[in-house]
Design brief:
It is built from seven helices and two strands. It is mainly alpha-helical and 131 residues long. It has a two-stranded parallel ribbon with strand order 1-2.
Length: 131
């Protein structure tokens, strides 16, 4: 199912599978590279402010994908735009889960965090299954 959607997306945007793969790699590279800086910024600015900033940037980056069109509708054109947006999305998303985990740890004592963490991870798993 998911492969069919990827093939259709690549065709609709006029992107090759190589460009789509490069975009996926850029996302995960930025996600991995952004983990440490995101956690340091989380400690600097605090949970609520940092999670709000991440949410705004993440939403803007995800919304910008609506501007990536095939050649007939181009507002943001081609593979470079796609890869750069994936890179930005990876950077924005890199601090989200660690931020949520940190924020939960502020509300529960260390010996009581198992249930909230489990519920967060279960929610992620279920949402992926509904895809």
């Amino acid at each position: 199912m998911r492969l069919r959607l990827v093939i259709q997306l690549s065709r609709d945007l006029g992107l090759s599978s190589t460009v789509y793969g490069l975009g996926s790699g850029a996302f995960f590279l930025a996600y991995a590279a952004g983990q440490l800086p995101a956690n340091l910024l989380l400690l600097r600015f605090g949970g609520p402010a940092w999670l709000a900033a991440i949410t705004i940037v993440w939403g803007l980056a995800a919304s910008a994908f609506a501007l990536v069109r095939g050649p007939a509708f181009a507002l943001v054109r081609g593979p470079v735009s796609f890869v750069l947006l994936r890179l930005l999305l990876g950077l924005a998303e890199s601090g989200a889960l660690p931020g949520v985990w940190y924020y939960v740890s502020q509300f529960y004592p260390a010996d009581k965090t198992t249930l909230p963490y489990s519920l967060i991870e279960t929610g992620i798993t279920v949402s992926q299954g509904l895809d």
